[in-house]
Amino acid sequence: MKTLDLSIVVPIYNEAESIPYLLDAISNSAEQTGLTYEIICVDDGSIDGSTDVLKKETQTRSSLKAIILRRNYGQTPAMAAGFTESQGKIIITLDGDLQNDPADIPLLLEKLEQGYDLVSGWRKNRQDDAITRLLPSKIANWLIGKITGVKLHDYGCSLKAYRAELIDDMNLYGELHRFLPALAYIEGAKITEIPVNHHARRFGQSKYGLGRTFRVIMDLLTIFFMKKFLTRPMHVFGFFGLIVTMLGFLMGIYLTFLKLGLGQSIGDRPLLILCALLILTGVQLFSFGLLGELLMRTYHESQKRPIYRIRDIFQDQTLIRH
Ligand code: UDP
Ligand code: MG
Predict the structure, then answer these.
(1) Closest residue CA from atom 24 of ligand 1
(2) pTM, two decimal places
């Protein structure tokens, strides 16, 4: 049930030193809005003591809910856990490393009130390493925009505001949190962006390196497929299957005419091989399409299985779920 105005979801993986500052900044900013709110910190299997820091913070902050995952699942599952446990009508996400500025929260809300379902932050003055972060990110942003059709400057910014209904409609896998705007777009959401602050990391270190680029590209391909064909695989595979089979079939008729009508030998003709190949691939493409349709239905209709397992949830000094 959505009983609060605002849920602020923060994935935490080894950010022990940042947490107290972060919680102060978020609380300050949220108090200003005058809305009812909760802060949901999802500890994604930290090993630097973040878990204890979070547990301790729940003793003094009644608005804080600490969700402790059993192990390190990654940023996307951590965020998904926070979403599922959230009770706000609006959900704000941001990083736990103080790189995003909680002071921007009221601006995001204001923009959301103008009738948007998703407001994304744009790190106009991004404070990260130029070669390993900014350049790949520039290319990725351009590519993502081209392929998904969502025009944003900065997909990688975690500081975003969503309407909760939108979040409920989206399923997250892999590292798809970066593509939430694209997924939201597939769900028909109204999306916009505003410039937000960005600071250099004060404590700890980034959890990602250049290897992320490859995973982003793979995720992008998935999104591309989802956007175009998820609910209609038969339109793609069936269409090509039919054309290819038809081509093979026509060649077959022509060859049959040569053989039976004109009495020519066709056994040594490359066209015969092509004809057989086309019919075979065509039938296969067609069957792929049918299988795709079946899988797609299972995907959409089967029971939803969470991509994470929660160990504990703490609130008001106590363990409220185990
Ligand atoms: N994070 C997480 N699980 C992970 C990796 C990262 O919950 O496996 C969190 C991390 O604590 C931070 C956010 O995701 O709050 C973004 O991570 P990071 O700051 O390292 O990414 P960057 O800003 O360098 O892109
Ligand atoms: Mg960061």
Answers:
(1) 206
(2) 0.82
